[in-house]
Amino acid sequence: MRKFALIVLLISTFAAAQQRVTKTQAAGTPGMLRGVPPAAVAAMRSIDAERIRAHVKFLAHDLLEGRGTGQRGGDIAAEYIAAQFQLAGLEPAGENGTYMQKVPLVGVTTQPQTTFALIAQGSQPMQLTMRDDYVVTDESLSETSDIDAELVFVGYGIKAPEYDWDDYKDTDVKGKVLLMLVNEPPSTDDRFFKGPALTYYGRWTYKYEEAARRGAVGAILIHRTDMASYGWDVVRNSWSGERSYIKGEAPAVKAASWIQLEIARKVLSSVGKDLDQFFDMAKARDFKPMPLPIRLQAKVVSALRPFTSNNVIARLPGADPHLRPQAVIYTAHYDHLGIRPGAPGDNIYNGAADNATGTALLMEMARAFASSRVRPPRSILFAAVTAEEQGLRGSEFLGKNPPMPAGQITLNLNFDNIQPWGWPEEVEVVGAERTSFYPVVQQTAKAFRLQIKPDSNPSAGYYYRSDHFSMARVGVPAFSVNEGQKFRGKTAEWGAQQAADYTAKRYHQPSDEYNPQMDFSSSQAMAQFGFALGWQAASQPRLVSWRPGDEFEAARKQSQSK
Which of 10, 88, 388, 476 is such that its CA lies 20 to 30 A from the CA of 554? Predict the structure, then answer.
């Protein structure tokens, strides 16, 4: 019955879309685009909001069960994307002549038998309640880990030589549990942790990695909404289900954890410490780790599930035989959070905006490229990646195992969470300014009558939170393309309010669902803009590079020296 329901859904969805497909809005027609031939412009103009709507409606349907990584709905989504690439006429660029790149993963689900207690010296154990007070995952991939270890407060848990910052001061933390703050030292100086913009040092992934490198058995992040840029609901929802890890990765902590702000405040006050003072002390360059008279006693019980998920990769070969071995790569993640068994009410995390929109845009852009009567000199790759919600696992694997050498990939353009709020008058391309391609981005935005909007929330560190970052880490110039907050007929304040409302009420929640009132002209505009950028990048005389001194420049040089 479920298979029949899926077939009916496919037929009805695309029948409706075919009736609604329209010509590109005249107001979206760009001005002069340098290096984009008329036939390519015609293909770009064929990109249509209603085709994108049809893809989103299918991908976000309850029948796909939230597209969980390694779950039935996620696998259906991957097969659907591969079928769309094949229908468009693109070559498979996965393994063994298929569109699939197998990503070997281990799913870790923290079990209800897990116990987590903070014991202040001379006091009764404070037993914490999973999800309400804390979340934890055993990143060592063990079924059971027993922990009885001293807590050490390590400030932000960062060692950044380029900023003359070291929270560890050579302190031996082997076998300890590290208590630390989310984010990084506040700054308005662009030369110090890039001012208000979050760097990778502020990401929770870095903090757990650094703790593991130093031999700690656990790391506990103190959640604070303003510093994390999202509330506890996001942490709880993102960490309550299965977490996925690439097989054979480096050593990791047994307890990768977050705790509620007030829980941290309560346990510290029990030993005469003031959490607000800890926040102040951590801002100082001369801060030193502080052993605390508190122990973590925990038993982390995990269900382990080895499985394979797939990145879906297609290729459009370039027209120039000398440049064809080089490529532009477009990416978008197709996974979301799946189903949370046992959760009350609606427990399907459909992920309509995050990221059925980006995936739909990717497929529509691939169709448009394949339909063009001319091809760009370099090849074009399209990669729908898995396990982004698990910590960028799919794109991490793609970056380490690209379909062509990373040094030959000129640019990565990523699409994530394109909000369906109407025709945009702004575009965000955070990170583009770090590349030699930025002047082209500026010219193209002008041709599309789009204002380039600075990062609307630099302290959230979005550059380090989506799949382009995985490509940047292996040296590929990369950034995401998204609309800003100004939409036609609306004020920027309206857009900001919509963004705040989405973050508070739908981001990583079951309420991120498709509805017929969604206006996918935003996705159409971003797809056309992205098409133009990719075509121009594929036509440049030289490969795109990072600006001198950029943090990823060394990786680029290394990749091109192989």
Answer: 388
432-468 pLDDT tens trace: 999 999 999 999 999 999 999 988 777 777 888 899 9
Task: Tell me the one-letter amino acid at 535.
Answer: W
Helix H or strand E segment including 145: strand 144-153
Name, in order, each residue with C-beta under 8 angstroms of 228's C-beta and a sequence gap of 6 or more. Answer: 182, 183, 234, 235
Q: What is the DSSP string of 199-264?
A: -GGGSHHHHHHHHHHTT-SEEEEEP-HHHHTS-HHHHHHHHSS-EEEETT-----SEEEEE-HHHH
Tokens coding 81: 């994307």
Nearest-angstrom CA–CA distance, 418 and 441: 18
Is the CB of residue 181 less than 8 Å from the CB of residue 155? yes
Question: What ranges do the domains of the chain cover?
Answer: 37-98+317-485+518-560, 108-304
Q: Which residue has the higher pLDDT, 66 or 34?
A: 66
Nearest to 153 by CA among 219, 251, 237, 242: 219
Render pLDDT for 513-531 as a digit per residue (tens, 0 to 9). Answer: 999 999 999 999 999 999 9
pLDDT higher than threshold 50 for residue 25: no
Token pair recorded at residue 191: 């030369």
Q: What is the DSSP string of 395-432?
A: HHHHHHS-SS-GGGEEEEEE------BS-BSEEE-TTG
Q: Is 80 exceeded by the pLDDT of residue 144?
A: yes
Residue 15: predicted pLDDT = 53
- Of all residues in the chain, the percent with pLDDT exceeding 90 is 83
Mean pLDDT of the 260-287 span: 95
The CATH class of the 37-98+317-485+518-560 domain is alpha beta
Unique residue bearing structure tokens 């309550």: 240
Instruction: Please say whether the dihedral angle defined by the alpha carbons of residues 266, 122, 110 and 346, taken in this order, is positive or negative.
Output: negative
**Token pair of 406 as six digits:** 């990373």
